[in-house]
Amino acid sequence: MSTTTPQRPRNRVRRSPKKARYERAFIDGVLDRALVAHVAFADGDGQPYCIPMLHARVGDRLYIHGSTASRLVRTLAAGAAACVTVTIVRGLVLARSAFEHSANFDSVVLLGRFGLIEDPDERLTALQAFTDRLVPGRWSEVRPPNRKELKATQILSMPIDEASGKTRSGPPDDEDSEDAAIDTWAGEVPVVTTFGEPVPAPGLRPGIPLAASVRRLAG
Ligand SMILES: Cc1cc2nc3c(=O)[nH]c(=O)nc-3n(C[C@H](O)[C@H](O)[C@H](O)COP(=O)(O)OP(=O)(O)OC[C@H]3O[C@@H](n4cnc5c(N)ncnc54)[C@H](O)[C@@H]3O)c2cc1C
User: What is the pTM for the complete model shown?
Assistant: First the structure.
């Protein structure tokens, strides 16, 4: 695996290039930590659509899945150009001026085309990755997909190649300006995402203990 993504004209960060990150370790880390990916593509009429989805990375590929009947799946499977974005907001950056307000974040933009995965083993590996990346170890606790469910699900993947990362950290950018003399609170408010207390399903039979994977998640 290459340690950085190739910087081509389409994925070279031009605005604030100091915030750019092309290392695969950064890009893979953001893809793995982000809960949601936004998948953009243009339909036949040129209208862009940007659809939020769950995703999973396995090695050098990004996987998404959806219903056989989904427009997104049909369009991407037919070879439409796609752009996938994932974002993790780590903090709000509050400056003395409205203009300098910002966010601390890690983000990734991935360009390319998805292909339909037909190989049964690769499909199962991807389905396991979708489950285990959200709740590590959950796959081994649940009923695996049956033939009908597998038939109703399409799995698509895109190589992690034409990708870029971007990151911002630290205080507002007005620290060294004349705005620093303004008597308004400035700083960073961290954004923390945590899991809350698990709520049992209404029909859960009494005596069924919390699954180990969920206990680990909450702990
Ligand atoms: C949570 C969040 C909030 C933001 N809010 C704003 C805002 O309000 N206004 C604003 O102008 N910008 C905002 N940005 C930055 C924004 O994502 C763009 O980076 C910026 O606007 C420049 O866009 P551009 O198309 O001119 O970039 P260019 O540098 O011209 O883009 C060239 C290439 O760089 C890559 N690239 C661009 N942006 C990103 C990115 N964020 N992550 C990874 N790769 C990227 C893509 O491959 C793109 O094709 C925000 C970013 C995040 C993560």
Answer: 0.95
